[in-house]
Design brief:
two-stranded antiparallel sheet; alpha/beta; single chain; 8 helices; 246 residues; Nucleotidyltransferase, domain 5; elongated; 5-stranded mixed sheet
Length: 246
């Protein structure tokens, strides 16, 4: 089974509340059942955020040249390309910390796109950090690369380079990582995701479109409650009329 190690880079923010739009997707495909030390394939795609411009500070951060902006495409198209690159075979999705899930959730809220590829997610930061250090805390990617004595690839904060460096750590310390299979709602429930919500009445976890705006009770439960309320009103009215008649 393959592992897809990915990294997302966003616009460099300078103030609180500024939107963290995705501007680069980097990914590496690894065959976890083989003893290969090299990636099967790599993926990189620049993403054009709303406003159709990537600021200079953000381009410098990810190592993008100004003329490369012409290669940037919409997030929806970039995700479609990523899915095509991933292919039909089943896979584990991996990243260095859950911050990438936070980025996906945030961008989905402000700019809807296909998230069906976010499955079998595994945060490999903690298990590899434990394999590298006796201290029970997570390491930054740069520190982990140093402790693992792995040659650094590319530029820090490049989506492609960071995914390659993370993949190299996974290959070297695969014995320390137990990759699990998870459904998409389990992945996003880590952040009490806006994509899926658990109904307080029936306790079922459902997609956000199955709820009213307040998103506490699903449509089915709300309809049942309304019908029960209307029936109760009718019964009360009939009872009052009967008393009046007497």
């Amino acid at each position: 089974m393959n592992a897809i190690v990915f990294d997302l880079e966003t616009i460099r923010t300078h103030q609180k509340g500024q939107e963290r739009h995705i501007i680069e997707i980097g990914a590496v495909k690894i065959d976890m059942e083989a003893n290969a030390s090299e990636a099967i394939d790599v993926f990189q795609q620049y993403v054009m955020p709303p406003g159709n411009y990537i600021p200079k500070s953000s381009r410098q951060m990810i190592g993008m040249k100004k003329e490369e902006m012409k290669n940037a495409i919409s997030l929806q198209k970039a995700i479609k390309k990523l899915k095509e690159w991933i292919g039909e075979e089943d896979y584990h999705l991996c990243s260095w910390s859950r911050s990438d899930l936070d980025i996906i959730q945030h961008n989905y809220i402000v700019n809807r796109f296909d998230v069906s590829w976010v499955k079998n997610y595994n945060d490999i930061q903690l298990p590899i950090s434990r394999a590298l250090s006796d201290i029970n805390h997570v390491l930054g990617l740069k520190k982990a690369i140093e402790l693992g004595e792995i040659p650094m690839e590319g530029k820090w904060h490049s989506g492609l380079a960071d995914s390659i460096n993370t993949a190299n750590l996974l290959v070297k310390y695969r014995h320390a990582v137990e990759l699990k299979k998870t459904a998409i709602y389990e992945v996003f429930s880590i952040f009490s995701s806006r994509l899926y919500t658990t109904c307080k009445e029936c306790k079922e976890t459902k997609y956000h479109t199955e709820f009213f705006k307040k998103r506490t009770t699903c449509l089915s439960c709300e309809i049942e409650k309304k019908m029960a309320y209307e029936l109760q009103k009718q019964e009360k009215s009939i009872s009052e009329e009967a008393i009046t008649t007497k």
